[in-house]
Amino acid sequence: MSPLRPYYTVLPIVPAVKAIFDGTSVLTGKDGRTLYDQSGYGRPEGEGIRLAPQEALYLLHRQKLDVPGYTFDSLLAEYADQRNFLRSFLVYRDLRERGYVVQTGPHDFRVFRRGEKPGTGESLYLVRVLSERDPVRFTKLIEEVVTSRNMRKQYVLAVVDDEEELTYYEIKLQKLADASVHAPPIAKAESVLVGRSAMIRVPLQSDLERAGFGKRLDDERLMLAPVELLYLMDCGVLKAKRDGAFISTADYFAYASESDPELAAKEKVYAELRRHDFTPRTGYKFGHHFRVYCGKNVHSDLLVHAIEKEAVMPISVVSRSVRMAHSVKKKMLFGCVHTTGIQFVEFARIKL
């Protein structure tokens, strides 16, 4: 009678690949080529492969690599002096654990589609790593997103918080489409300044109200916010009087800016939204400049915050903005004022 055989197959134990640490990166012999050929680790060099620090540490931690004279802890200590290395490694490890093949560059990482690797597939994401206290420099961010788009990749921010938790944000440069509903024409009129706002006498359901301007003071009077007044003055639809005399658009802008240093950016972004027949209203209750209606929906579709071209904003502020927008089922856009126009940047939290 033959002995019982196990119903499962016992896989042979694969010995760890031997490698050396040269003070900068880790280099394997020819047996390391299987790591590249099968799983996309490293880059070929000679008969072996050269591993980036994140790759070497990950393989050492998974006991797939043997670097004589070094443990995971001691090799990590060697790299720890490199700026932002630990959070970079944490993102690399997370992406690998999610089943992606990851290589360094051209930002921090490029990430391949699941099941694909260098030589046999294309990368899907370009990833930039930040900590929760890092600033977002919008000029640089837009440049990197444009580069990613030109390479037909998705640009992703990987943010590592102080408890080593990771959050991923997809960044898109949005080109606004025109609204499905067009604003009605507005008859020319005159208004009177009341502080920085303007008051105009119009009947209920006037063309201004139907176009989404102003807030009723009573049945006879409509109040216009500074950005609304500036837009209507610039369009030549409305004139405003102060102390009995008409005030120019430039003089009114200077006057209103005294109490609102963000007015320049807000006014430009507001005008751009109006050019697409969107209806921007104050977004104060949501912590942003505008809530924006894009069509027939009774609820606003977007939250938009206006910023100058060289704006720098902590990623923690962006995180709060995205979470707020998500909680009220809206998209979060930052309207960045450029010399060539307004660039709308969308932040959206994603799960890779």
From TrEMBL:
PANTHER family in alphabetical order: TRNA-SPLICING ENDONUCLEASE SUBUNIT SEN2
tRNA intron endonuclease catalytic domain segment(s): 85-168, 265-341
Keyword DNA-binding in record: no
GO molecular function terms noted in the UniProt entry: nucleic acid binding; tRNA-intron lyase activity
Record's GO cellular component terms: cytoplasm
GO process annotations (BP): tRNA splicing, via endonucleolytic cleavage and ligation
Occurrences of domain tRNA intron endonuclease N-terminal (ranges): 18-71, 190-252
Record NCBIfam families: endA, PRK09300.1-4
Pfam families per the UniProt record, alphabetical: tRNA_int_endo, tRNA_int_endo_N
Keywords: Endonuclease, Hydrolase, Nuclease
Name of the featured protein: tRNA intron endonuclease
